[in-house]
Request: fold
Amino acid sequence: MDQTHLHLLITHFPIFGSILGGLVLAHGLWTKSNQTKMAAYNLFIISAIGSGIAYLTGEAAEERVENIQGVVEATIKQHEEFALFALVSLIVLGVGSIIGLFLTLRKSKLITTTAFVILAISLISFGLVARTGYLGGQIRHTEINSSNNPNSTPIENEGDDD
Reply:
């Protein structure tokens, strides 16, 4: 398994982890279960780690696909730029979750407030990472590309003088 394969495998976890963690955290808030909140925080921490791995392996994946016929350089660039926003968001979510775990274990009075803040961050993170995944999918899954952008040219055609 190389970095490209790892990138393709790991990119799905931050997407599903952020929304699943949000649902688990919402359930923990609803039932007032600190154990359920801690389970959500652990999901968020693992999702943040996964997003870091996905981001670090992205360059190798780009190198692998940039010369494949039909791959549009602008799509790769857009995915890469948006991935940074998703990464930062998930790092904030992971750090917030570590704080949430600490406060929950210490039985702080801020447990519920912190959980609501982290829930909001998780929803924002989900939106960012889902959009990043969508943009990444457009690199090779042209069937999901609803825009027929005439300004997008495949990489292999750049510089051709036909």
Remarks:
- Helices lie at 3-10, 12-31, 34-65, 73-105, 111-140.
- The longest helix spans residues 73-105.
- The chain has one domain: 3-143.
- Residues 3-143 form one domain.
